Amino acid sequence: MPRTPLWPTPVLLLAAAFASPARADTPAPVVIPTVGRTVHYRVTRLAQGNAGPRSLSSDVTLRRKSATALTLKGIAGDPAAEQTALTVQPDGLLQIPAADSAAAANGALVDVVNGLNRLVELFAGERSIPRDGWSPILHLPDLHGANSSVAVPVAAINAGAAGFDLHGVGQFTVEASAAQSPAATPARTFNRRRGFRGGPAFPGTGATAGTAGEGSAPAGPTHPSVTVAVAVDGSVRRTAVRKISILETRSVTVDDVPYVNVSGWTIEVSK
Q1: Above 80 in pLDDT, residue 213?
Q2: Comparison of pLDDT for 265 and 180, the residue scoring more
Q3: Which of 71-85, 97-111, 134-148, 246-260 has the lowest mean pLDDT?
Q4: What does the alpha-carbon distance between residue 93 and residue 114 come to, in Å, rounded to a whole number?
């Protein structure tokens, strides 16, 4: 009677040893909560002020009401009970309703929404994170030139079932363009004396600060070209953002004098 071997043949052992392991991508984090769920973030905004860098932290609560609506509260400077209704667009980005003029004028709220939207775009379209990384597109709506965007190749580091760390840097240049009338000047402008000005920053600045008057771009045939470098760093644990930093460095040279502006967000789960 033939005997069944106790161990696989050497050929089978070699095949098993050199077989490619199954791909085990890490689930992408859920940034905006699903319907009926709540998430808490600490959003720290870094912005350039006249006297140097300033930061402002908001401990916000996002509560998803429906597929297209959620509420946000906890903006620094707001009463504890005050909340804002936001629209969730089909691509997952948050939007302040056009009819809510008070919310649109709240600079701290606008900054938080902009930071959260960059975080949404960081993981947009990714159901799972490939072990070799991915390349999200981040839009920079406050930069001169409508719908400016930058691709940020991101590396997933130490990816596994428990999560992963990430790091990425992307850069692009908005070329010099013809000057616009004051009414059409973008919210994020440049001034030779003060550097970059305008755009939401902190309570009281308003969502359209710097669009005209003091802080607007100087009269002249062109706006100077602006180079933007976007760096992202952080960590994800299981399906939640643990802590992500998004840093934007903008540089411009005027009359052979370089100017640099650094701003960004740090977003982390607070509860």
Answers
A1: no
A2: 265
A3: 134-148
A4: 9
Which tops the pLDDT comparison, 1 or 85? 85
Q: Mind listing the pLDDT tens digit for each residue in 141-172?
A: 766 555 688 999 999 998 888 889 999 999 98
Contact between residue 223 and residue 176 where contact means Cβ atoms under 8 Å apart? yes
Count CB neighbours of 161 within 10 A: 9
